[in-house]
Amino acid sequence: MRVLVTAGPTREYLDDVRYLSNASSGKMGYAVAAALAAAGHECVLVSGPVGLAPPPGCEFVPVETTAQMRAASEEAFAGCDGVIAAAAVCDYRPAVRVEGKIKKDGAPVSVELIQTDDVLAALGKRKAEGRQTPRWVIGFALEAANPRENALQKLRAKQCDRVVLNGPASIGGDRTAAELIGPSGEVVMHWEGSKPAVAGDLVDWIDAWVAAGRPA
Amino acid sequence: MRVLVTAGPTREYLDDVRYLSNASSGKMGYAVAAALAAAGHECVLVSGPVGLAPPPGCEFVPVETTAQMRAASEEAFAGCDGVIAAAAVCDYRPAVRVEGKIKKDGAPVSVELIQTDDVLAALGKRKAEGRQTPRWVIGFALEAANPRENALQKLRAKQCDRVVLNGPASIGGDRTAAELIGPSGEVVMHWEGSKPAVAGDLVDWIDAWVAAGRPA
User: Fold this and answer.
1) Does A91 touch chain B (CB under 8 A)?
2) How many domains would you assign to chain A?
3) Interface membership of B11 toward A (CB under 8 Å)
4) Which one, out of A79, A146, A198, B163, has a CA that is 20 to 30 A from the CA of B79?
5) φ/ψ (deg, to 5) at A130
6) What is the CATH number of the domain that holds A179?
7) Which one, of A216, A163, A174, lies nearest residue A198 by Cα?
8) What is the pLDDT of residue A79?
């Protein structure tokens, strides 16, 4: 099996120095890539800027902005059987990127933020492209309020087969608690532990699910 | 000599997940701290979130926001002889931090950014506090346009003894090119090389300058 993994944050610049981002460490996505390689799968890891070395045995595509992540992911996805989208994409960007560095003059600055490309939705739309058996898509949702309801909405809006749901407490840490949400909003699995352990559980689950013919 | 070093970026949150920051890697500040320790000085390293291990022999104070960096730096500065302020402080913050996570609804979001605490100016103001011989203050300036003129303005506005001037190309990289700017705007020194090498040159310069009675 050949699998695309997205990982890490993206950055969206206000000027040449200041940007909008989030504290995603990439640990979960890198752990998933390592678990895929350990299970004998091919892996393409498209990653935003993080302080981690890519796991051995993965193809590695570093990106910085959301548009770059979308382009690299769409290109890699064409040759993959599925995607595990663990990246914490920066989903807003300044409408205008100022060249150079905004000089401070003491006054407040009003910045208009617009939504960036939706990487996961773009992959979901292409899942059946050129294939008799559509590629599978597993998204990640990080929800603070109404988590299961929002995860299910995300699953549907982005044509995911399953969504891995976790909370803001997972960001940057070494451990995570995650629920695997199915297409009717049901909690298929609950995993808790180190990110490598949960990544291993997720890859095991995918292997069994694919072997069973990917039941809905 | 006991020296405060500030390093790394700070983060200013829009909500519990999204923040404003910059790509400062902390490499220059950590190299300065290591050079101070190697030269036999005591060092307190106040650092924003970076992917580096604190150099052995330094007191280490991790912070996240600009307000935290200001508070930790002011506290440490009271017991120091000088400061090398290499941090790339996030100088704007959202006027409002939303609890939880802003939900996307497709519409643009307007964010008002206001200036954060000026850490370097706060230290400059306190340089003479409780001392017959004022503490020395060396700032860093990262300027895209009119670099020397802006560095001199910074030196004056923030009561620095010298300013280390570099350009946006230095951010995140392993090498830097820096000018040491004096109180009349003159270029006292020009250094170029790896960040550890330039940090060593800077500490050597400070040692000689302090030994000479800190001539203006």
Assistant:
1) yes
2) 1
3) yes
4) B163
5) 70, 15
6) 3.40.50.10300
7) A174
8) 96
